[in-house]
Specification:
Elements (H helix, E strand, L loop, with lengths): L6 H4 L3 E5 L8 H12 L4 E5 L6 E2 L2 E4 L11 E4 L6 H11 L3 E4 L16 H12 L2 E3 L5 E4 L4 E4 L7 E8 L2 H14 L3 E6 L8 H11 L4 E6 L5 H12 L3 E6 L21 H10 L3 E3 L2 H11 L9 E6 L2 H13 L3 E2 L4 H9 L12 E2 L6 H12 L6 E6 L7 H10 L7 E6 L3 H13 L3 E2 L2 H22 L11 H16 L7 H10 L13 H8 L6 E7 L19 E5 L2 H18 L5 E8 L7 E10 L3 E8 L11 E3 L5 H9 L2 H9 L3 H21 L3 E12 L2 E4 L2 E5 L16 E4 L5 E6 L5 H9 L3 H8 L8 H8 L6 E9 L5 E11 L5 E8 L8 H15 L4 E7 L3 H10 L2 E5 L4 E7 L6 H8 L4
Parallel strand pairs: 1-2, 1-5, 2-4, 5-6, 6-7, 10-11, 10-12, 12-13, 13-14, 15-16, 15-17, 15-18, 18-19, 19-20, 34-35
Antiparallel strand pairs: 3-4, 8-9, 8-11, 21-22, 21-23, 24-25, 24-27, 25-26, 27-28, 27-29, 30-31, 31-32, 32-33, 33-34, 35-37, 36-37
Helix pairs in contact: 3-4, 6-7, 9-15, 10-15, 12-13, 13-14, 16-17, 18-19, 20-22, 21-22
């Protein structure tokens, strides 16, 4: 997967349409007509084995071998059965891009002992180097290049919105809707069955090569979660990304993937993925249109407080119901606003309060006066105008007044003109003026909440979290790996209760006091060491796996007996449990018994936390209300690791458990902090132990004394692949400098923002100029986020860090690289603190980065150095960089070859980076 040869799809100098004819039903003929009608200016040929002289006036040949030159793009509309051989011949001839519109159910069928047509198409692509978009795609449209290589019958205006989808019909509907709203597109295409070119490849290409302001994504499935998350996270840092996913319910999900253990609806996993990627998710096509209307026309919000101004209380209350149910907040006016509204007698229902009801006799002037007051309130983030037409205030006249005076309103303005006949004109005026407008108050509120969601996910994407509350040691990781190796060597995929307790304790998680006897006599003796009443659980092969729930968890067959008063009762319970398991599950081996004192009397809350694995997105952290019945899953939230304290806090805040904590805890902030630390610890555990498939702590008791894990289970699987690259712990190393300092050289992490701020404050103006090519006195929050919160899949930064005598840490230097998506080139920058130069820090950082880039297969490292930066030029010479003067930019270009290209395309990219 890469952007290899994608330019030839979007900006081809020549095109051949294979399978085109002048028959009315010919897809190829429709494509040629669209190319001609759109004004395509490159060379164009048709290919049809019937040997037509021309098709719609375009020169036609009988076979691709008869084309007078190698075309940039081949558009294939021929029968599906011919596609594998056709792609092989085109690839052998040097064609590097094929757009396949053909399709059908026979794609998956085997023919005469051969593999499926889909597989043979992919084999042809890999052997010949041709890139394939499709089959079963609608085609692609790039209005800015006058390219309509599709079967769509609509004219698409030029714009700054890119639509990338997996459904041709939905794309056609999007074109028609956009035409009615005056919205144009920079790119519009569908992938169809995605044999070769995948959605992340297209996102990467557009993110690098297009001035697109917004990307609309329609998803049916995700093939490579890590590639997808990397591409989308990169894109959403630079532009608005909206996504809609079909197949949200089990009935509509055609992926055939197994369920995610511990998660009832896999759609929640996509919610978590979109949130981590900074993407706004919409639930249906109407929301997609409304969200695009809102987010493309409004200034960023600072909060989630909405004020409502209406000429009737009924419509306003509908809006309030929708707002509260969606998780928004109704703004509370400050005293000055309330006084102004009362003095001017503007509110007839609840004077001075939100919503502002102007009454059915409100004139356009009263609307303007009320809006000016409300929009000036610092407690208001946006204002919704809800209007129903009256004789004194016709919709159109009111809209004209709002548009004329809108510069007087200091907040984002949303409008809902209720009705039809009179409202049409008002909506049209607002749309033309760039004021978001909606058919109903509920739709307007939903659009406002999209802005709130966008603010939240962007904040999570760009914030710099507080320092981690803990770090694991190599000794802890080694101990847990050794235990896991022993379990696997024993032929088991799940750990016993006692083994899981060892792992939890190694990571500092509080575990209930337990004894693990192997029979009735040992259980009776162990009970004498504890204070009753007791609970005893039998641990066997059938109940050692996480996320296995029973309808009747308190029956004896579930393996648990509680409220045992004496050691004798414990021994009797062990015998009863053994008999019941032997009777009901004769094939299960009993591993041990777990004896605990009952955990009661502290007003504890039962919670659940753990790790699970999704078949697409890999490891997930989950949290919610605890218990053993299926209905607890309704409160369960999931998040993609790695987590930091800020992400963990966001995850906790979205659960019903968090609301209960705020209502009943004596110290909610303390308890939420404990839970966040637990979730961050679980995230670190998932990262450190890639063979850990599932871990469920349930119940996890939270009370005034703290947290304690009472019951838990863990199972194992193949090494996990994370959707978001975790912190590369293995790249940490310690070095002694020339002055005797012990310094750690390690990858940067999001929590290093304070270190970066202090480091920047100690740099001279000259060092800052050498690094940024201009004077940069202070770092903004956005700067800190970009510098500290990197994507390890495409970026790397190593810092040199020293532990000071007072226990604080200081940053001595940093080196960074930015890889292109195809890992051809990486651009570096390096800066060392002025007072520490000459200690070899710069050389060590650069050598470490060079080793890393070579190891990940990058071909070339490049950088730009100011002419008067003589120490850096000397270091580059020492490291073997080739240096040349760049006359145009007045800098020195430094280049170091790291690895040799493995194919012609890589060699071509080294010569022409934009191919």
């Amino acid at each position: 997967m890469s952007t290899q040869f994608l330019r030839r799809f979007f900006d081809p100098a020549s095109i051949a349409v294979v399978g085109a004819s002048e028959k009315p039903e010919s897809t190829g003929g429709q494509v040629i007509r669209n190319l001609l009608d759109g004004g395509y200016g490159g060379k164009l040929w048709a290919v049809n084995p019937k040997g037509y002289a021309s098709v719609h006036g375009v020169e036609c040949v009988a076979r691709t071998s008869q084309l007078p030159e190698v075309v940039d793009l081949a558009i294939l509309c021929s029968p599906v059965s011919t596609l594998p051989k056709l792609l092989s011949r085109l690839g052998e001839r040097g064609v590097r891009a094929a757009l396949v519109l053909s399709g059908g159910s026979q794609l998956e069928q085997d023919e005469g002992g051969k593999s499926s047509i889909r597989q043979r198409m992919l084999d042809a692509a890999r052997s010949s180097g041709i890139r394939i978009l499709g089959p079963e795609c609608m085609g692609l449209i790039v209005p800015g290049r006058r390219l309509n290589a599709s079967y769509s019958s609509h004219t698409v205006p030029r714009g700054k919105v890119a639509y990338l989808g997996q459904s041709g019909m939905l794309a056609n509907a999007m074109i028609d809707w956009a035409a009615g709203r005056g919205i144009g597109f920079s790119h519009l295409l569908t992938l169809g069955e995605s044999v070769d070119v995948m959605l992340p490849d297209l996102i990467d290409y557009i993110n690098q090569n297009s001035p697109t302001q917004a990307i609309l994504l329609h998803l049916e499935r995700v093939h490579d979660a890590q590639h997808f998350m990397t591409a989308v996270r990169d894109a959403s840092r630079n532009r608005l990304v909206l996504a809609i996913k079909s197949g949200r319910t089990s009935q509509a999900d055609l992926s055939g993937l197994p369920p995610t253990p511990g998660v009832t609806h896999r759609d929640r996993v996509f919610d978590a993925a979109f949130a981590r990627a900074g993407v706004v998710r919409v639930n249906d096509s109407d929301e997609l249109y409304d969200a695009l209307e809102t987010l493309s026309r409004m200034r960023p919000l600072k909060g989630d407080r909405l004020a409502i101004v209406s000429n009737g209380l009924g419509p306003a209350m509908l809006a309030i119901d929708k707002l509260i149910n969606a998780g928004g907040r109704l703004a509370e006016f400050e005293e000055a606003t309330q006084t102004s509204l009362r003095e001017r007698d503007l509110d007839i229902s609840k004077p001075g309060e939100n919503p502002v009801d102007l009454g059915g006799y409100a004139t356009p002037e009263r609307f303007v006066a009320a809006l000016e007051i409300v929009a000036a309130d610092p407690n208001v983030d946006a204002v919704l105008v809800v209007h129903a037409p009256t004789r004194l205030a016709p919709s159109k006249a009111t809209a004209e007044a709002l548009i004329r005076e809108r510069k007087r309103f200091r907040r984002n303005l949303l409008t809902s003109w209720m009705g039809f006949e009179e409202a049409i004109g008002a909506r049209h005026l607002c749309h033309e003026a760039g004021v978001p407008t909606y058919l109903s108050p509920e739709k307007a509120v939903k659009a406002f909440m999209h802005m709130v969601d966008y603010q939240r996910v962007q904040s999570l994407l760009q914030q710099t979290p507080p320092s981690l509350p803990f770090s694991t040691s190599a000794e802890v990781r080694e101990r847990c790996h050794r235990l896991i190796d022993e379990v696997l060597a024993d032929g088991r995929e799940s750990l016993t209760h006692s083994e899981t307790a060892q792992v939890l304790k190694a990571y500092g998680l509080p575990v209930a006091e337990s004894r693990y006897p192997d029979g009735a006599q040992a259980a009776e003796e162990a009970a004498r060491e504890l204070t009753g009443p007791f609970a005893i659980k039998i641990v066997h092969d059938g109940n050692s796996r996480p996320f296995r729930y029973r309808r009747h968890p308190h029956k004896l067959s579930a393996g648990l007996v509680q409220d045992l008063a004496s050691p004798g009762d414990v021994a009797e319970a062990v015998d009863r449990l053994s008999e019941k398991v032997s009777e009901k599950f004769p094939g299960f081996r009993v591993r041990e018994f777990c004896l605990q004192p009952m955990q009661r009397g502290k007003h504890s809350m039962q919670l659940c936390a753990g790790i699970t694995r999704d078949p697409v997105f890999g490891p997930l952290i989950l949290f919610g209300i605890g218990g053993y019945k299926v209905n607890i899953l309704a409160d369960r939230q999931v998040s993609l690791p790695p987590l930091n304290m800020t992400l963990a806090a966001d995850m906790v805040s979205r659960t019903h458990a968090a609301r209960l904590i705020r209502e009943h805890s004596s110290d909610p902030e303390r308890d939420e902090q404990r839970l966040c630390q637990l979730l961050v610890t679980l995230s670190q555990m998932a990262t450190d132990l890639p063979r850990l498939r599932g871990l469920e702590i349930n119940p996890l008791l939270l009370n005034r004394d703290g947290m304690v894990a009472v019951d838990f289970a863990m199972d194992l699987g193949s090494p996990a692949r994370f959707a978001i690259m975790p912190y590369p712990e293995e790249l940490r190393e310690w070095v002694k400098l020339r002055n005797g300092w012990d310094v750690e050289f390690r990858p940067i992490r999001a929590e290093d923002a304070p270190l970066i701020t202090d480091f920047h404050g100690q740099l001279s103006e000259e060092s800052i100029r050498f690094r940024y090519f201009h004077n940069k006195t202070d770092l903004s929050q956005g700067d800190l986020s970009r510098l500290a919160h990197i994507n390890y899949d495409r970026q790397m930064a190593f810092i040199a860090e020293r532990l000071c005598e007072d226990g604080s840490k200081e940053m001595l230097g940093v080196v960074r690289v930015w890889n292109d998506p195809d890992n051809i080139r990486t651009e570096f920058s390096i800066i060392i603190r002025d007072d520490l130069q000459g200690l070899g820090i710069g050389s060590r950082l650069m050598e470490k980065m060079i080793r890393y880039c070579k190891g990940v297969g990058t071909l070339e490292m490049v950088g730009k150095i100011m002419i008067d930066n003589h120490p850096m030029r000397a270091l580059m010479k020492h490291l073997g960089f080739r240096q040349s003067f760049n006359m145009e930019e007045q800098v020195v270009d430094a280049v170091l070859r790291l690895n040799e290209p493995g194919n012609d395309w890589q060699r071509h990219r080294l010569e022409r980076p934009m191919e």
